[in-house]
Amino acid sequence: MGAAPRDRRRHGGAVPHLALLGLLRLRGGPVTSTTVAARKPVRWGRVALHLGCLLALLVMLYPLAWLLATSLKPADEVIASLNLLPGHLEWSNYTTALDGVNDVSIWRLLGNSLLIAGGAVLGNVISCSLAAYAFARLRFRLRGPLFAFMIATIMLPHHAVLIPQYIIFNQLGLVNTYWPLILPKFLATEAFFVFLIVQFMRGLPRELEEAARIDGCGPFRSFFQVVLPLTRPALITTAIFTFIWTWNDFFTQLIYLFDPDKFTVTLALRSFVDASSTSAFGPMFALSVIALLPIVLFFLAFQRFLVEGMASSGLKG
Questions:
Q1: Separation between Cα atoms, residue 276 and residue 283, nearest integer Å
Q2: Which helix (H) or strand (E) element contains residue 293?
Q3: Are 23 and 15 in contact (CB under 8 A)?
Q4: Most-buried pick from 3, 55, 120, 163 (CB within 10 A)?
Q5: Where would I find the H helices in 6-105?
Q6: What is the separation of C-alpha 47 from the centre of its chain, rounded to a whole number of angstroms?
Q7: φ, ψ for residue 104 (rounded to 5)?
Q8: Are 75 and 280 in contact, with CB atoms under 8 Å apart?
Q9: Are the CB atoms for 41 and 47 separated by under 8 Å?
Q10: What three-state secondary structure class fits 1?
Q11: What's the CA gap between 82 and 91, in Å, rounded?
Q12: What is the spatial distance between Cα 32 and Cα 311, in angstroms, rounded to a whole number?
């Protein structure tokens, strides 16, 4: 590629015929990838941003590293030593934790927690999606005031409704059972998730439902066959947060559950200290690591669908 004859005088020299070596002359030489890389300024702001992100990551991961290290420390090093790494690996902490608490095996505790968390996830996904569909798609009287009242319940503290709920379940004879922990989830009591799904459904095109209505679909069939599959990202988000919050719940389970056979892993952590005194901090942290594994596995199993759904805005497929 040479310069045009009439414009050749404007160039300091002949333009190379190889396009990969340069098309124009700049400051007496061809522009190549080497010269561009040499002249590119260093973006110190981006470097500082990356260093700040790495520092924040280390700060956030330090509690997890401390938990893993403490679960392998002997009893005398848990409180007396400030070192992160244990001086001696005490694998017996995990052996003691796997034996259970109060003659209840660890598998029974994990099963109880999984039953409550699974029921809460199922209840929130079903009830909150139905309530959100009503607020987002259906037209009925007092829809606006009812939606505003539902949003206002987000600011209501959980402890304010705990006593009335306990009185109701006590009169029904459901205390010391799993029903007080699962049944409210089927009544769309989590306003945050209802609001989340409502905002997602409002972004879906109404033409899809109109086409389904022309084909003879009613509200329920349109919900289950058209809207619900497109709302998968919001439903997966609801499932993830419900599982984590229910699995880590301590106060509500402490109020309703009395029998050690019905205890969850969260209650067992506290009972572990009571049963074995302060010398059982190592097994308690080991049990904490075991209790953390289902949450990590649950998130890893569903985060791929969450990212995929968000990337396609719920309209893929």
A1: 10
A2: helix 281-311
A3: yes
A4: 120
A5: 33-39, 44-70, 75-80, 92-98
A6: 29
A7: -115, 125
A8: yes
A9: no
A10: coil
A11: 20
A12: 37
Tokens of 207: 């033409």
**Cβ atoms 59, 49 nearer than 8 A:** no
Backbone φ, ψ for residue 249 (5° rounding): -65, 135
- Tell me the β-bridge partners of 26: 29
DSSP class of 29: E
pLDDT tens digits for range 170-222: 999 999 999 999 999 999 989 999 998 998 888 888 888 888 888 888 888 88
| Closest-CA residue to 122 (of 270, 246, 213) | 246
Nearby residues of 86 by Cβ (< 8 Å), 6 or more positions away? 69, 70, 72, 73, 74, 77
Residue listed under structure tokens 């160039």? 11
Distance CA 245, CA 277 (A): 28
Residues 76, 175: Cα–Cα separation, whole Å? 40
For 80, residues 6+ apart whose C-beta sits below 8 A from its C-beta are none
- What is the value of pTM for the model shown? 0.76
In this structure, the dihedral spanned by the alpha carbons of residues 266, 270, 275 and 280, taken in order and rounded to 10 degrees, is 100
Query: Mean pLDDT over all residues of the chain?
Result: 80
